Amino acid sequence: MNNVAVFADQTALMVGAAERVVQLATDAIEKRGRFMWALAGGSTPRELYALLASERFVHQIDWARVHFFWGDERCVPPDHADSNYRMAREALLKVVKPPDEHVHRMRGEDDPVQAAHDYERVLREQFGTAGGSLPRFDLVLLGMGADGHTASLFPGSAPQFETRRLVMAHHVESVASWRLTLTPVTINAAAQIVFLVAGADKAGRLAQVLDQRTEGKVLPAQLIHPGRGELTWMVDTDAAARLDRGQLPAARG
Ligand code: 6PG
Q: Which of ligand 1's atoms lies nearest the C-alpha of 149?
């Protein structure tokens, strides 16, 4: 049974997601003195980041104790319009102003294979997992594309099958660009994974992804199952429109 929270509309979804981030950050900072958060890219989370930076939420998190990571990045410079880092910097980081050493962006401007290797080293350093143990994010925030991709794990792409490396670089035909991405093994080691999905264009695919009986190829978003953690799908009613009754908790928001 998937843990699905349905919100009346996109605004209610973002408020619910902001409250969840506050709750997880507060808990992690109280217990471990820091909040290790892998951000999602794309466009949906922009509204969430802006809401967290607003007067309504900005004072509810001790931002100096938050470490920002990325679940994936486009292989472009940090000021490029496609950069996931730039999107988060403009919507959130320039307001909350975390210490520079707490912002761990994937270096999209570097050679992709080297950047993936370097980011794996950053993860091992920050999480203290020099040996075989896996970095355990307090939260990995993810989106889902209409094709069922998540982070930069695209259908049929090599990183979705990777079981050893923490971070990979690959050229994605469907978007005609190089991407950097956490691999499923890294994402699934997280304590909390939250998918943020909004809009009618995702409804069919969301129903398919949540229907674990799906025949044929497994979609990347279906590879996300935290081994020792919790997975929550936070969606609006438009995205939830095709879910069957068994998957639909009482709507909220
Ligand atoms: C990216 C994202 C990607 C995104 C999905 C959904 O770099 O594009 O990490 O995985 O989450 O494409 O994007 P939207 O939320 O904008 O639809």
A: 10
